[in-house]
Design goal:
This protein has one domain (23-163): Immunoglobulins (Immunoglobulin-like, Sandwich), CATH 2.60.40. It contains one helix and ten strands. The chain has one helix at 2-21, and strands at residues 27-38, 43-44, 47-48, 51-52, 80-89, 98-106, 109-118, 127-136, 143-151, 154-163. The protein is elongated and about 50 Å long. The longest helix is centred in the N-terminal third of the chain and has 20 residues, at 2-21. Helix content is 12%, strand content 45%.
């Protein structure tokens, strides 16, 4: 019986250490948003102008049928998707660079892979930072977006979202 009491006491003492040792990562990917980019007939030399749709991820209210010709819920032709990735940090600072990598696949083939070095921190408090990417040649095939936050050679956090593009007659 005494052995059971000692084991139970050790479990009670060790439980708080286990709970407190599982910290949130210093930085993590909080959200991915994507918008259609409409730029038809808005080229002016090297400048491109255009407008954006509302967020097209995680919504049932938007039809993404034939967006390349302005079909579905599109307000015009769209061949590009504008992606915003939001990172949140718990206030801890690291001087080790982080890389934010966005991979987009369509029909199980890599469409694009883009990476940028990012810094997102706040002193003694959390910080929220957003980074943007453009993916070309989108609008007909379902698209999978995979965002990875990398520190050194290790992936710290991953978030994946899908965009249900389709085309047809």
């Amino acid at each position: 019986m005494r052995v059971l009491k000692n084991v139970f006491a050790l479990m009670l003492l060790g439980l708080p250490m286990l709970v407190f040792s599982q910290k949130k990562p210093k930085s993590y990917i909080k959200n991915i948003e994507a918008k259609l980019f409409y730029n038809q007939d808005k080229w002016k030399g090297d400048n491109v102008a255009g407008t954006f749709s509302p967020n097209i991820i995680d919504t049932e209210e938007i039809s993404l049928w034939n967006t390349i010709i302005g079909g579905g819920s599109a307000k015009g032709n769209s061949h590009q998707t504008f992606v915003t990735i939001t990172i949140e940090t718990n206030g801890s600072y690291t001087d080790q660079p982080q890389v934010l990598r966005l991979s987009s696949t369509a029909n199980k083939k890599l469409l694009s892979q883009q990476s940028i070095t990012v810094t997102c921190y706040g002193e003694n408090e959390s910080a929220v930072c957003s980074y943007c990417f453009v993916i070309n040649d989108t609008g007909c095939d379902p698209l999978t977006l995979k965002a990875e936050l990398i520190r050194g050679k290790q992936v710290q956090h991953t978030l994946t979202k899908a965009i249900d593009f389709h085309c047809g007659e």
